Amino acid sequence: MKSHRGFGGGFTLIELLVIISIISLLSSIIFANVNSARLRARDARRIAEVGQLNRALTLYFNSYNYTYPALPASCGSATWALSSQTACWADVATILNPYLPAFPVDPLNTTISGNAYVYAYQTINGVSGYRLGANLESISPSGKGDGCWVVGGEPAGFPAAFYCMGDNWQ
Asked: Which residue in 38, 77, 64, 61 sits closest to 132, CA to CA?
């Protein structure tokens, strides 16, 4: 009887390479979807937090003779209070603290590739109006932002995907 001492039922190199390439392809698809989901989650958080800021400003308006808070002196000559301006944004948070104790800061709160991912607040016509917004990463703002830059000009680094709300934006 002849004894057979071979490798028997193993895989060939080609079969292993095919399986590795399939696993690589599937993992790249999964990672791309996870990253996309993170972007959408951050955008959903931004829209929700801008809504919270909007409600806090409305409560302030009703409590202070129908005026909105002016930009604090710590903002200097800026026409917008940005959450990346630590002192300025902290002073806006102090003003609105009774109405919004946990004051939001953008999930990224930084500038990436020239786009500023921050929250922005601007008073209009003294303190009789305001604009409030956040730069979105992945979703269209669905018309929000039309006319947002009419007064005061666009802050540096804010593209068309800026989600905007206010008391009188067009």
From this structure: 61
Starting at the edge strand found earlier in the chain, the sheet holding 81-82 runs: 81-82, 119-124, 129-135, 162-166
pLDDT digits (tens, 9 = 90+) for 75-118: 888 888 888 888 998 999 999 999 998 888 888 877 666 667 88
Residue 163 CB coordination number (10 Å): 22
Q: What is the pTM of this model?
A: 0.71
Q: Which residues contact 77 (CB under 8 A, 6 or more apart)?
A: none
CA distance 42 to 47: 9
C-alpha R_g of the chain: 25
